[in-house]
Automatic annotation (TrEMBL):
Residues 19-172 form the Lipid/polyisoprenoid-binding YceI-like domain. Keywords: Signal. This is YceI family protein. It holds the Pfam family YceI. Residues 1-20 form the signal peptide.
Length: 172
């Protein structure tokens, strides 16, 4: 009898990791970006990660990602530049405080969804990996966007149009 209860308990516990509703953990390396400024790679991060990740390890196509980041937290390590990035011409954080991503499909190791920055929504697609980590999952991926597609930075000639975003999101 004890063996049956133990087997049932293990089965129920393992099902929690098959299909789980997770919360992203807000860390310094969760959302990072790189863009050339005056020809020099400038690295930064955005924090305030929130939302839900409904991960189904048995059926990734049934998974759903719906997350936001706080645009006011943009950090390149230079406060004067960061304050400039928060202004209307760039992220306009007073009017658009959140950057969001909502998945529309997960196929194999590729996720497709809608990225919204500064009130502009564009569909993006990128490869990702997932592995069990610290009682949850670690999701990693990266993608490139054109900042002008989102109305960021206006006509700046010192800033590259291309921005690379890297994700390393722990979710529990």
């Amino acid at each position: 009898m004890r063996t049956i209860f133990t087997t049932i308990a293990i089965a129920i516990a393992s099902m929690a990791f098959v299909s789980a509703e997770l919360k992203p953990v807000d860390t310094a390396e969760a959302v990072t970006f790189t863009i050339k400024n005056f020809g020099i790679n400038t690295r930064g991060e955005i924090k305030g990660l929130k939302g839900t990740i409904k991960w189904d390890a048995a059926n990734p196509a049934a998974s759903v990602f719906n997350v936001t980041a706080d645009a006011k937290t943009v950090n390149t390590g230079i406060e004067m530049r960061d304050n400039h990035l928060r202004k209307e011409e760039y992220l306009n954080v007073e009017k658009y405080p959140l950057i969001s991503f909502a998945s529309t499909s997960v196929t194999g190791n590729t996720i497709k969804g809608n990225l919204t920055i500064k009130g502009v929504t564009k569909e993006i697609s990128f490869p990702f990996t997932v592995k069990p980590s610290n009682g949850g999952y670690l999701f990693e991926g990266s993608f490139d966007i054109n900042r002008r597609d989102f109305g960021v930075g206006g006509g700046s000639v010192s800033l590259s149009n291309n921005l690379s975003v890297s994700l390393k999101v722990q979710a529990k």
